[in-house]
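Lab notebook, design round three. We kept the backbone fixed and only want residue identities now. Task for the bench partner: fill in a sequence for the structure below.
Input structure tokens:
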């Protein structure tokens, strides 16, 4: 295995220092646990000259959770989130998603901000430098064609596979962002349609695996926030080739509210299928009655229309879409039956 290329690591102690460093070094990369970025550097996928270690910024480690609201700093460790008693009690979908990420050592190192901003990947991108050069690279790196979808007209179909975002989407989460131009808050769903497309309705874009985050130059995610919905039941599950370490073949988060025998609220998020995490649109039309064949058929139709996996992993796209639909139905029935 080749040695890592040379780079410098900056260690800001405050958020202001981190933002100033990002502004001074526009090509720098923020570093959390390094479980994704360092691997990409070793493979030649990334080659930053400057890394900015965000883990010493104290305010990014805060985590507050109760029956009313949730706020998680970007540098909170995945293992800390998974084991937090209030998160488990009031936001089980998020605790379960955190517990499903990779293996124990990855969860002890990886951060919430890193998982939210996880790089998209496919079988043509997530390889060594010599392998990619043999295939004339790809649109996401220095090539001109997306090998997954050669007729895509300049759109990259690399898949997003972070576990936390689909869970957070079902909670209606927002992200706090800081940069040289100040601070702002963005609905999490809007984060994944790319900065150039953020004025478009989310349902009108399937995302772009190359420009998958709506962050302006120099910006950093500082926290993610959500409010609790009373009586909301939620859970997360995923299928992967091996039960640890692997990225998901498909991951599904479901949150619902039941009133008597009536499905009153339904939210479903997906990962591992599209170039962005997907909050299924149209689920409100499935509510207002019992969970029966009408809901099951309607859910299958929504998945069929909106979950569009390509040949980005070693499992066929149609298989991953079917797995996603099955997981969604199972979680829906399990949560509704209580």
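Proposed sequence:
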């Amino acid at each position: 295995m080749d040695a890592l290329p040379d780079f410098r690591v900056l260690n800001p102690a405050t958020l202001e220092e981190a933002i100033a460093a990002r502004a001074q070094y526009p090509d720098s990369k923020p570093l959390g646990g390094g479980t994704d970025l360092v691997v990409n550097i070793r493979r030649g996928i990334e080659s930053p000259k400057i890394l900015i270690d965000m883990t010493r910024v104290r305010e990014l480690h805060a985590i507050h959770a109760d029956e009313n609201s949730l706020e998680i700093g970007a540098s909170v460790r995945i293992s800390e989130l998974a084991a937090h008693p209030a998160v488990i009690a009031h936001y089980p979908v998020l605790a379960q998603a955190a517990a499903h990420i990779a293996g124990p050592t990855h969860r002890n190192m990886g951060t919430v901000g890193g998982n939210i901003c996880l790089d998209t990947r496919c079988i043509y991108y997530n390889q060594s430098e010599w392998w990619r050069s043999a295939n004339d690279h790809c649109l996401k790196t220095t090539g001109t064609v997306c090998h997954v979808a050669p007729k895509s007209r300049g759109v990259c179909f690399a898949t997003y596979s972070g576990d936390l975002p689909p869970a957070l989407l079902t909670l209606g989460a927002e992200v706090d962002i800081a940069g040289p131009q100040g601070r702002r808050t963005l609905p999490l769903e809007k984060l994944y349609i790319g900065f150039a497309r953020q004025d478009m309705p989310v349902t009108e874009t399937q995302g772009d695996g190359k420009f998958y985050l709506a962050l302006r130059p120099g910006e950093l995610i500082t926290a993610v926030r959500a409010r609790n919905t009373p009586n909301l039941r939620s859970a997360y599950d995923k299928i992967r080739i091996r039960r640890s370490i692997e990225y998901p073949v498909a991951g599904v988060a479901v949150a619902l509210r039941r009133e008597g025998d009536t499905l009153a609220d339904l939210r479903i998020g997906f990962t591992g299928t599209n170039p962005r995490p997907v909050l299924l649109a149209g689920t409100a039309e499935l509510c207002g009655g019992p969970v029966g064949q009408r809901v099951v058929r309607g859910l299958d139709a929504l998945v069929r229309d909106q979950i569009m996996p390509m040949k980005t992993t070693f499992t066929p796209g149609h298989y991953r879409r079917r797995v996603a639909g099955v997981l969604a139905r199972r979680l829906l029935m399990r949560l509704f039956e209580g």
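Keep this in mind before ordering anything: The chain is about 30% helix and 20% strand.
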